[in-house]
Amino acid sequence: MRLFVALELPPEVKDRLASLAGGLPGVRWVRPENYHLTLRFIGEVPGHLAEELDLALAAIRAKPFPLSLSGLGTFEKGGRVQSLHVVAERTPGLAHLQSKIETALQRSGLPAERKRFAPHVTLARTEGAALPKLAGFIQAHNLFRTEPVMVERFVLYSSQLGKEAAVYTPEVEYDLAA
Ligand code: 3AM
After folding, report:
1. CA distance 77 to 54
2. Whose CA is nearest to atom 20 of ligand 1?
3. What is the pLDDT of residue 163?
4. pLDDT, position 24
5. If you measure from the C-alpha of residue 3 to the centroid of ligand 1, how many angstroms do you get, rounded to a whole number?
6. What atom in ligand 1 is closest to the CA of residue 120?
7. What secondary structure, in 3-state letters, does 2-44 show?
8. Is 107 in contact with 34 (CB distance < 8 Å)?
9. Is 36 a catalytic residue?
10. Atom of ligand 1 at shortest range from CA of 4
11. Is 74 near ligand 1, meaning CB less than 6 Å away?
């Protein structure tokens, strides 16, 4: 199974994000049903390890926390802009949950994540976009903000890569409790 841990987003936030999509030739917009905030990409794991990871995630104790999205950004690789995202505020509640997840997964045998956690919601894959247009789009939407929403759970998703778009299926939900 190809797995990742993420936050789902409430419909009102997805609607706001979906309202940003459009007006950029050459980009592939993420489908609104696929919007999520990745806490940890796990990748392909055998079934027995998936069960261990599930147990470790289920043992995490963390409190609900507010989540706000604020501003736009891009990720680059090899001098190309790969994706466009909305930035999530790196609040103590979010950082705490992400660090607990990282620790739990490492204890269960996953290698450490080397990249620093940069919370975001991907809006589009942008390999085919013209850079000036992309820069203009980011400028035009730089004041994008969402009202804080309470995060009450996190989710283990499976991901099936498809030709057009990946299919993400919530496999297990883990509740946060005060
Ligand atoms: O949450 P976003 O959209 O930024 O790009 C994939 C997606 O990121 C990323 O995991 C999220 C859920 O699929 N992803 C895919 N392969 C990856 C890899 N090998 C990866 N992240 C890190 N390493």
Report:
1. 32
2. 41
3. 81
4. 94
5. 10
6. 4
7. EEEEEECCCHHHHHHHHCCCCCCCCCEECCHHHCCEEEEEEEE
8. no
9. yes
10. 12
11. no
